[in-house]
Amino acid sequence: MIDVKWMLLPLFAQFLLSMLIYIVSRLRRGQAVKKGLVKSRFFKTFEGEPPPRDVIAADQLILNLFEMPVLFFTASIIIIALKVNDNVQMILASLYVISRFWHAYIKIQNGRLAIRALVFTISAVMLTGMWVWLMIQAFFP
Fold first, then answer.
1. Model confidence over 78-89: pLDDT tens digits?
2. Host domain of residue 32
3. pTM for this prediction
């Protein structure tokens, strides 16, 4: 077993990704308002002419970061609580977070659906692997 504190590294990286996307979203919103591409009141009521695609992409990504990553945080916290962190979990967690960074980069840059879908699938497989390995560790130590 690896010391459970090491599981905090992929958790922290996922947290940093979320904060980075919040910053990108805020900057893109501000630039769109400053350039007159959208009225600031749109972000209060979400009514009226929608903002440009790059603003919407960043906003959608924020929502996405509170979907599947919640299952990642949950699995990671359980791994820490049960003290079952090992090389397999560290590799799966690290690959999950790397794939989420990759997915975010694609979404923010150009949003190419085929590539983004592939990267999303990779992250889903890594997360599923974490949960399956966690169940094996918990019930068949």
1. 999 999 999 999
2. 4-38+50-139
3. 0.91
